[in-house]
Predict the structure.
Amino acid sequence: MKREETDRNEQIGKKRAEENVKKTKFVLSSF
């Protein structure tokens, strides 16, 4: 695998993780 692809996948993973954290906080705050 190319280093560029790895970097891109890591960035996508970070974005997804951040989105999941936001969703979790939103759900917890709605209770």
In short: The mean pLDDT is 92. The two ends are 43 Å apart (CA to CA). The chain is about 90% helix and 0% strand. The longest helix spans residues 3-30.
